[in-house]
Amino acid sequence: MESDYTYTEAELIQGLKARNQRVFGYLYDHYSPALYGVALKILNDENAAGDTLQEVFLKIWRNIDRYNEEKGRLFTWMLNITRNTAIDMLRSKAHRFEQKIQDVGDDVHLYTGHLAVYQSTDHLGLSKVLEKLNKEQRIIIDLSYYKGCTQEEISTILNIPLGTVKTRTRLAMIKLRNLLKTL
Amino acid sequence: MDVQRYISSGIIESYVVGLLPTQEAREVEQAIGLYPEVKAAVEACRQDMERYVQLHAITPPKGIRKRLMEVIENEDSPEGETLLPEELRDPVLEEDAPSAGFKLSIPRERIWQYALVLAVVLLIISLVMNVRYANRHKALKQQHEELISTHNKATADHQSLQSKLQHTEQELLLLKDPAFKWIRLSGNSKHAGQFATICWNPQSKEVYLLAQSLPEPAADQQYQLWAMVNGKPVDAGVFEMGPQRTALQKMKDLAAAQVFFITLEKKGGNASPTPDQLFVSGKVNG
Prior knowledge:
Helix content of chain B: 40-55%
Low-confidence stretches of chain A: 108-120
Domain Anti-sigma K factor RskA C-terminal (chain B): 117-275
Largest sheet of chain A: none
Number of helices of chain A: 9
Helix content of chain A: over 70%
Mean pLDDT of chain A: 82
Order of helices and strands of chain B: HHHHHHHEEEEEEEE
Strand content of chain A: under 5%
Organism (chain B): Chitinophaga rupis
GO biological process, one term (chain B): regulation of translation
Oligomer: heterodimer
Transmembrane segments (chain B): 111-131
Pfam families (chain B): RskA_C (PF10099)
């Protein structure tokens, strides 16, 4: 971190709107690991994730005037930009539905054996959470949030009726919340 | 609306993880605006999700920050503009929602436009060539017809010359043959200056006549050749005038004759000569 001053979210937004480059640097230093983690999880490719991260920060810088505080916090907005940009890139790379499932299979190995490959800032917490989530809960959260799967796709992958996808999603998130409390 | 039931239906969580189709997501956004409890539930769920996301945080490669700072420092210059992704250049056209596949439609239409223009150009070229070749075909056909008619004429000329040549060769043979006697018939008094020639072979009995300077008869009249055989006139046949006048004409065969003479008779000839119509006559020598 280059600056020891802590900005509030309101100050960040104001600074970005004022084209303050120091505020932009601070934003990058504080949020790039989380956004890069999202891009890398979606794309499974360090080069593509790096390109995505760069594009995301330029979008934040250029489009800060479109940010609407009533719709959510700044971080939520930045996460949505990251997810949409990375999922766009994933689709443009002609990844198909089967490829998404394949990626999840690969992820299972990553979680269990090779966490050190991704220099996670909190891989102990992550592995603790992932151990406790069952496969179905992990698939619902990861495939929908990180791969942009639809309800229909989740219903096909898990072989459950379309009508129960929402309730299973709720159960998965409740389980996740409880696990996060124990950290 | 039963807000609690709505919250516990799972729609909030589905919205936050991005499972909902556009229409349903819009309904949730409306509910957020209307019900503070819904807004709080969505916010709590987002924070859970964001804590989960933070667990995946990874420090990005070093170079990215430096490149970004360069881009935003130079963004107001034209060079800096080129460092931006295309969609972020002025005027700003940022699209938050995923939009894969949208960009392809315009170039694909262009391809059809180009193909159409090309097809029309090819059609025009083809039409021009067609007209040109049709004209050429017409000209060649005319030339071909002219050549055929020239050829036919040449063939006819050749045939007529061939027959003339044969005739001339035959006449030449008669001239060379010593067995033929040549008798000159000439006119007296009112027919003075008129003459014809007879060519007669007493052995083969052949008689040929060369009409020469006899005047043209009327259409219903014809000259007739006679021979005096032992004091009696013998018919030797009628002959043609006009173009045939300069050619040797074969007459009836005669075994004997002392005098040849020609009278003008009605067309087709008479059985006996008309005395006052005598034109030319000549004696056979020896």
